[in-house]
Amino acid sequence: MNEDQEALDLAADWADISQGLKKDLGSQLHAQWIKPIQLGSFCKDTGTLDLFLPTEFSANWVADRFADRLSLAWKIARSEVRQVRITVHPRRRAMPELRVGGDAGMAPARVQGIPAPVVADAMVTGLDPSLTFAEFVSGSANVLAVNAAQRMAAVETPQFSPLYLKGSTGQGKTHLLHAIGHAYAANKPGARIFYCSAERFMIEFVQAMRQNEMIEFKARLRGFDLLLVDDIQFIIGKASTQEEFLHTIDALLGAGRRLVVAADRAPQALDGVEQRLLSRLSMGLVADIQPADIELRRKILEHRLARFTSTQVPQDVVEFLARTINRNVRELVGGLNKLVAFAQLTGQPVSLNLAEEQLTDILSANRRRITIDEIQRTVCQFYRVDRTEMASKRRARAVVRPRQVAMYLAKVLTPRSYPEIGRKFGGRDHSTVIHAVRLIEELRTRDADMDGDVRTLLRQLED
């Protein structure tokens, strides 16, 4: 239990550190380099914390540019952390390399400790066995992409090639790529299938050039029956890599092979990509994956809940998550997993209060931008007090309590600091805001009326 609590504490600290880095670095840099970081183990004897990234390239990049910042942030959060070690995830090290000679790099898909699905002796590389069509929940937002993916995996020659899956982060592009690979392997005995990211394609290409292995590299790459390339937006700006990828596309399609790529934007929106490559990427079918609507988000949650038979998740919590976590499916599933894991490890029942407490970072990121002015107007209308009372010096209870509630909501719903909030409430000191926030938090735990007021105001502000 102590180890479980330690893991939860580390996860909570990382959530705070990650959010801080997002504000410092901006959403784009954070999403590309910080968000993929996974927590490893913490050795209390040496004070060493392991942070993992999915590839050698990303691990080296983050270590070169952010090691000092990450180390400082962890030392501030936890004084016992003396060293942060940034490496590639151990499971990723074992992934077979495209560069391995002959067929040695081809093996039935598997993840460490998990048996590969039966694929009728097909030779596949890089697929995650958990990402299949059976585990993908479809709805109106992704029906075109799902149907196109299933056609691409069928025995019959598809009417379109390449297939280009376009969708924002966390909407299911990667899942569909893996699902196509598994289904095609099951349908086509002996098929040679390879999944990789555009980043990995570039790394392998550069290594092949440095080691004078370009002929072998091209031959192996073009020998696949199905090539699946993820995050194609990262191939931008590399002229030689683009040229080789263009020739690979031509060779595969010319030989009747299949190609599926995925990106977070349409081909025409890719910056730094030459026109010939854009033309090839657009010549098949561009299938758009829209953000999941609330009906699809409900279906996804219900599908995931089937795995958690030992933990009861009330319907009001499911509805709350479906309505609130609306940016992408990955965050939705991650939020549910975190909530259920916390409940299982601590023995607490899943409830709305627990969801709000444990998913603060996810919920805050999904809420629309709300201003302090909007909060003050809403609170004043709710409690029927004049708007000027938010900045007044009056200390009557009928005025102080609404003002404290507004300060609390300002801290919960906006990224403003305590001093910034204080300035919006008549130039009050940050300590006054801290007191108000802690008081309302405490009142919500023992005063049902106060908790009800805050919930009502949250709904009004978030609708």
From TrEMBL:
Q: Which Gene3D superfamilies does the record match to this protein?
A: 1.10.1750.10, 1.10.8.60, 3.30.300.180, P-loop containing nucleotide triphosphate hydrolases
- What residue intervals traverse the membrane? none
Q: Which domain of life is it from?
A: Bacteria
- Classification via InterPro entries: AAA+_ATPase, Chromosome_initiator_DnaA, Chromosome_initiator_DnaA-like, Chromosome_initiator_DnaA_CS, DnaA_C, DnaA_dom, DnaA_N_dom, DnaA_N_sf
Record domain AAA+ ATPase: where: 159-307
Q: Which UniProt keywords apply?
A: ATP-binding, Cytoplasm, DNA replication, DNA-binding, Lipid-binding, Nucleotide-binding
Give one Pfam hit by family name.
Bac_DnaA
Q: Where is this region: Domain I, interacts with DnaA modulators?
A: 1-104
Q: Which SMART domains match?
A: AAA, Bac_DnaA_C
Compartments reported by the entry: Cytoplasm
Binding-site positions, ATP: G170, G172, K173, T174
Identify the stretch(es) annotated as Domain IV, binds dsDNA.
344-463
Q: Domain Chromosomal replication initiator DnaA C-terminal spans what residues?
A: 371-440
Coiled-coil residue windows: none
In which family does this protein belong, per the annotation?
Belongs to the DnaA family.
Q: How does it assemble?
A: Oligomerizes as a right-handed, spiral filament on DNA at oriC.
In the record's own words, the domains note is: Domain I is involved in oligomerization and binding regulators, domain II is flexibile and of varying length in different bacteria, domain III forms the AAA+ region, while domain IV binds dsDNA.
Role: Plays an essential role in the initiation and regulation of chromosomal replication. ATP-DnaA binds to the origin of replication (oriC) to initiate formation of the DNA replication initiation complex once per cell cycle. Binds the DnaA box (a 9 base pair repeat at the origin) and separates the double-stranded (ds)DNA. Forms a right-handed helical filament on oriC DNA; dsDNA binds to the exterior of the filament while single-stranded (ss)DNA is stabiized in the filament's interior.
What name has this protein been given in UniProt? Chromosomal replication initiator protein DnaA
